[in-house]
Amino acid sequence: MSDTGRKGFGDKASEALKPDSQKSYAEQGKEFITDKADKVAGKVESNDNKGVFQGVHDSAQQGKDNADSQGESFADQARDYMGAAKSKLNDAVEYVSGRAHEEDPTKK
């Protein structure tokens, strides 16, 4: 599931699985536009408002973009952004754990 206004993970996966050589010009154009729109939405949306998976995806995407623009290897940049992704996942685990261990108000 994706955040509101973002490109769905299912759409991204199906686009990635189909080779460009099998896509029409219209499909490639639509993909290009929706990818750019999703990138912009990821940059303007606060990290606090992103879902866990959307935050991880955006961190990885930012790392790839930075590596591309700086000429650094993707592996080097990926290590940096994996730390940010792990932090986001840890926050989610702590939140879920805290909610699971809260006292049930109906048992008071």
UniProtKB/TrEMBL annotation:
Residues 1-78 are annotated as: Disordered. InterPro entries: HSP9_HSP12 (IPR007250). Residues 59-72 have a biased composition (Polar residues). Residues 1-21, 28-48 have a biased composition (Basic and acidic residues). Gene3D superfamilies: 6.10.280.100. This is HSP12-like protein. It comes from Saccharomyces eubayanus. The gene is U6500F00460.
